[in-house]
Amino acid sequence: MSKTVLYARVSTADQTLEHQRKQAEAAGFKIDQVVADHGVSGVSTKLAERSEGKRLFDILRPGDTLVVRWVDRLGRDYRDVSDSIRHFMRDGVVIKTVINGMVFDGATTDPIQQAVRDALIAFMAATAEAQAVATKEAQKAGIELAKVHPKKGAPAYRGRKPSYDREVFEKVTAMLDMDAGASAIAKETGLTRQTVLRIREERAGAEKALASWGM
């Protein structure tokens, strides 16, 4: 029996899982299963490498429908999004978006429809990556401006508040010093694997961020 699976990637406070599910249901989708990743970058982490995203490749079967709010929930890397959509289509899975009601179906046999579909996939995947790049550049520009010209009375720019406290940070660093793997540390501390990797690569920066927030 075919099923409809909603995949949600929750990366900011205004992209809650409940919000994405309600949007899908309001659009007429009857959701049988929800798969969600929290706090995972759609730029640096491929769908198949996310703790929950990779489950899609195991649970989706021919005839199933994969629902996403928009293609940027699958990712913000052009090649990853394109490859993921085409992988699912080859497996007989139909991908549908809540926004704009787009449908990507590998069962299409008409060459003209295939060409239009493939061009649309490429366009939407490229748009998702372009939006990510534009957002990152805007944030960078805003941060640099705040550093050079802080508003009167405004506190000094401290960057994003760490998602962990000092106790968790010290536990992570201790496990890293014992050569524990990122996945094992993430499971033990409740952090995402990406957060653990950031601490590993920029331990001094993580320490500085905790200090700047008085943690």
From TrEMBL:
Entry-linked PROSITE patterns: RECOMBINASES_1 (PS00397), RECOMBINASES_2 (PS00398), RECOMBINASES_3 (PS51736)
Active site: 11 (o-(5'-phospho-dna)-serine intermediate)
Segments crossing the lipid bilayer: none
Keyword tRNA processing in annotation: no
SMART domains the UniProt entry points to: Resolvase (SM00857)
Coiled coil: none
Keyword DNA-binding assigned: yes
Residue stretches making up the Resolvase/invertase-type recombinase catalytic domain: 3-150
Key words of the record: DNA integration, DNA recombination, DNA-binding
Record's protein name: Recombinase family protein
